[in-house]
Amino acid sequence: MQHRTGTRWTHQPGITLIGDAAHLMPPVGEGANQAMLDAAELATNPADPDPAIRTYEEAMFTRIHPIAEMSARVQAMMLSPTAADDIIRFFTPQPIEPAPASGRVDEGARRSARPPGKPIAGGRRRMSG
Ligand SMILES: Cc1cc2nc3c(=O)[nH]c(=O)nc-3n(C[C@H](O)[C@H](O)[C@H](O)COP(=O)(O)OP(=O)(O)OC[C@H]3O[C@@H](n4cnc5c(N)ncnc54)[C@H](O)[C@@H]3O)c2cc1C
């Protein structure tokens, strides 16, 4: 299936789309998360729906575009002839800090130097091409 990125539409009063209907993309772990975020953003101002829909749509178009492109790149990687090697490389942590002078990598120091919540580079990183 071919997925399009950058889908937009002209605002129509009182109606909009969320979830896959708004931004169908390859299933690489983002669609349901983005659908829930759509719903949460749209529900921020239920008393005044039309401005809420406009605000949601503009924010969603901007938010989704890079995610849809990243999903397309990951799908292309998974379907390529070199998929196995590429996926191993994608999930293999890369050292962030320069190795100590001795050349020995201190795994404990490397992990504690990482800001809380920040993944080790290589795990779920953005694809560059
Ligand atoms: C194999 C696979 C793996 C995935 N893995 C992930 C993941 O790990 N993480 C992630 O975030 N996302 C993942 N996704 C994407 C995620 O499933 C979708 O993005 C998400 O379900 C979209 O939710 P939705 O409510 O927009 O649409 P849907 O879940 O498709 O819900 C639409 C509903 O509308 C119903 N419907 C359709 N037409 C009509 C009609 N005419 N009348 C009444 N009802 C109708 C359908 O039966 C369906 O129940 C994956 C998708 C696939 C296919």
From TrEMBL:
It comes from the Bacteria. Residues 2-44 form the FAD-binding domain. Keywords: FAD, Flavoprotein, Monooxygenase, Oxidoreductase. Pfam families: FAD_binding_3. Residues 94-129 are annotated as: Disordered. The keyword Oxidoreductase applies. GO terms for molecular function: FAD binding; monooxygenase activity. Signal peptide: none annotated. PANTHER family: FAD DEPENDENT OXIDOREDUCTASE DOMAIN-CONTAINING PROTEIN, MONOOXYGENASE ASQM-RELATED. This is FAD-binding domain-containing protein.
